[in-house]
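Handout, section 3.2

Students often ask what a structure token actually looks like in practice. Rather than define it abstractly, here is a full record for Response regulator. The first block is the sequence as you would receive it.
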Amino acid sequence: MQKLYIYIVEDNPLIAYALKSMILKMGHNICGLAECYDEAVKDLKVMHVDLVITDIMLKGRESGIDLAHYINRNLHIPFVFQSSVTNMEMIDQANQTHPNAFLPKPVSKTEMIKVLAEIAA
């Protein structure tokens, strides 16, 4: 399986650290971390990224759904939502962006392995 360069967008530092640790132990690379849409867009414009893992709820005005729309319009790279959102309207909005996967928080190692294997294949 190819090593992926993964960018994480998560406004909770503990969750970001847990995701980063889990992904690194799986042999992939973390090429960046952001807490908000603006920071992520700034980085993603100049980085080589194979996958973005983003929360739906982020710091600031824009959400992970806004980031997904940006990725679809400008970058055309895979992205995955990981979120604890249970609001069906928001989940429907997120699914309309066509994510590669939707991982509920807390993200299980088994599900993460499965998603990363599908993207790296």
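Discussion prompt for tutorial groups: The helical segments are 13-25, 37-44, 64-75, 88-95, 109-120. How would you have guessed this from the sequence alone?
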